[in-house]
Design brief:
The protein is an alpha/beta fold. It is built from four helices and eight strands. The strands form two sheets. A six-stranded mixed β-sheet has the order 4-3-2-5-6-7, with helices on both faces.
Length: 167
């Protein structure tokens, strides 16, 4: 079975829902501590939530860890493209991704940042063990359509590069 066939449910997420979810996640994080100092976004999925969390928590230090493991719905071997200053990270650092699916990427990042707090909006059962805080748990067979991957119309449009590849 290909990885794209393993998703039987879809969860479309609007920008409004995404912003509300990020704010709810901030409230959960503030129950843990109020001195978060750094955010490291796992790209690309962690970029948008990192921006919103940084604004809500008044964090100005934002960095990225670049790991590629998905092309559309096809998962491949995780490839580390860029790392952040992991040797400086402590428990006040937030590591953010949009979701944890199988945990392959999360496992790599947890090893890079063992003292930091790993947070996601969504977590699936196979990756949940790597997450310190998540907003919502989803079934393993759910594909989330994030607002930066879709249009604001009711139907889901492919990304522009997908359209160009099909021509």
């Amino acid at each position: 079975m290909s990885t794209s066939e393993r998703y039987h449910k879809e969860y479309p997420l609007s920008w409004e829902m995404f912003q509300t979810d990020c704010r709810a996640l901030v409230w959960k994080l503030l129950e843990i501590r109020n001195d978060w100092s750094h955010i490291v976004a796992i790209t690309r999925g962690g970029l948008a939530p990192a921006a919103l969390l940084a604004a809500e928590l008044n964090i100005h230090y934002i960095d990225t860890v670049c790991i590629s493991s998905y092309t559309l719905k096809e998962q491949s071997e995780a490839k580390v493209i860029k790392t952040a200053l992991a040797n400086e990270a402590d428990e006040t650092w937030l590591i953010i991704d949009d979701l944890v699916d199988t945990g392959k990427t999360a496992k790599i990042v947890r090893e890079m940042f063992p003292k930091s707090h790993f947070v996601t909006l969504f977590a699936k059962p196979l990756g949940l063990e790597f997450v310190d805080t998540c907003l919502m748990c989803l079934s393993q067979d759910t594909w989330v359509h994030f607002p930066w991957e879709t249009t604001s119309t009711p139907r889901i449009e492919p990304l522009i590069y997908q359209k160009l590849q099909n021509n």
